[in-house]
Amino acid sequence: MSESFQPAPRPAEAEPRRPSVGVQIGKVTVGGGAPIVVQSMTNTDTEDAASTAKQIAELARAGSELVRITVNTPAAAAAVPRIVERLQMMGVEVPIIGDFHYNGHQLLEAEPACAEALAKYRINPGNVGFGKKKDAQFGAIIEKAIEYGKPVRIGANWGSLDQAMVAMLMDENAQRAQPWDAAHVAREALIRSALDSAALAEKIGLPRERIILSAKVSGVQELIAVYRDLAARGNYALHLGLTEAGMGSKGITASAAALAVLLQEGIGDTIRISLTPEPGGARTGEVIVAQELLQTMGLRAFTPLVTACPGCGRTTSEFFQELAKTVQAHVREQMPLWRVKYDGVENLTLAVMGCVVNGPGESKHANLGISLPGNGEAPAAPVFIDGEKATTLRGDNIAREFIGILDDYVETHYASREA
């Protein structure tokens, strides 16, 4: 698609998207008005059951509510039941999705234990089969999903377009009095690939409440246009994600720019942030970004987030930055325990500010805030609890004392689930 492509503006009279059909994946509901679900994908060799189970557990503990794994070889398919068994022994109940390309029909037929162990199958209509074999191989996977009672994501992707669909649409386009541009044809190919495959799955017998659709591209404007159109043409549950988003700030910025627009319009039922991790970096980064995107938009709450100023010439040192980092790290470290023990703690708001300009005001807006001294200010850090000044910290132990106040606040202000 052309980098200069601009999607048509959303009509001012457009109605909000009606709720999609809900899909049950294990204990997780996607669509149907349920909260937007965060998912992720492993990058381990699935044949290595131990390392794959370990990474799934890490992703689940970070907050991923669905985890997808590659199932590409007979050995990988055979490993799936062992992976699920390992997770059960670890007390991890996250639903596992099998990602199939080219040979999914063969693997599911040869490994019935894999077909049973997976919570959902993902099929790419662009490479499920080619020519006369395409519908038969697609149908074979759908029939396995029906046999084992599994939902299916039909995921079209710009990087693996259904070439037969593209050729057909190009022929149709040539007959138009005013032909579409190439970007429009490509967009239509993605959407039709997903929708036509869903229609075929329903014809075979897979109910709509077991179908999720996606149509991923790697450009922000293209993704917005594709999903607006896809949502307008059906009420299937939709999985959102900017494919091949990239590394670091570029991947985060691009994903947030695209998904935020769609989520604000009520489009999307489950999301993945497809980040390329740094070499040796944790895979869990994509989960944290997805959570923070939903939380900063006010769509869900996962963990207390820290409001912190960026620093300027008024701030005397990097101490407030270090404190903000320490507080956020402490919250994430404690959250697995807090989530189990305290009801509603994910809604806690925190502020770590660096000077008197906005420090007291932001601190008063948070449940718990601290305003550190800036240039020319007295060496004192007032602490505010629920809008009221509670104490003032001084000296070399401010970080430890503030963490103590935070822990005490959580313990005294949130109902214990054990009660």
From TrEMBL:
Annotated NCBIfam families: ispG_gcpE, PRK00366.1
EC number(s) on file: 1.17.7.3
Matching InterPro entries: Dihydropteroate_synth-like_sf, IspG_bac, IspG_bac-typ, IspG_C, IspG_TIM, NO2/SO3_Rdtase_4Fe4S_sf
Domain IspG TIM-barrel: 23-290
Record-linked Pfam families: GcpE, GcpE_C
Major enzyme class: oxidoreductase
Binding, [4Fe-4S] cluster: C309, C312, C355, E362
Protein name stated in the entry: 4-hydroxy-3-methylbut-2-en-1-yl diphosphate synthase (flavodoxin)
Co-factor remark: Binds 1 [4Fe-4S] cluster.
Catalytic activity field: (2E)-4-hydroxy-3-methylbut-2-enyl diphosphate + oxidized [flavodoxin] + H2O + 2 H(+) = 2-C-methyl-D-erythritol 2,4-cyclic diphosphate + reduced [flavodoxin]
Gene Ontology MF terms in the entry: 4-hydroxy-3-methylbut-2-en-1-yl diphosphate synthase activity (ferredoxin)
Pathway(s) served: Isoprenoid biosynthesis; isopentenyl diphosphate biosynthesis via DXP pathway; isopentenyl diphosphate from 1-deoxy-D-xylulose 5-phosphate: step 5/6
Species, as recorded: Dyella lutea
Role this protein plays: Converts 2C-methyl-D-erythritol 2,4-cyclodiphosphate (ME-2,4cPP) into 1-hydroxy-2-methyl-2-(E)-butenyl 4-diphosphate.
Spans annotated as Disordered: 1-20
Co-factor(s): [4Fe-4S] cluster
Recorded family membership: Belongs to the IspG family.
Residue intervals of the IspG C-terminal domain: 306-406
Keywords: 4Fe-4S, Iron, Iron-sulfur, Isoprene biosynthesis, Metal-binding, Oxidoreductase
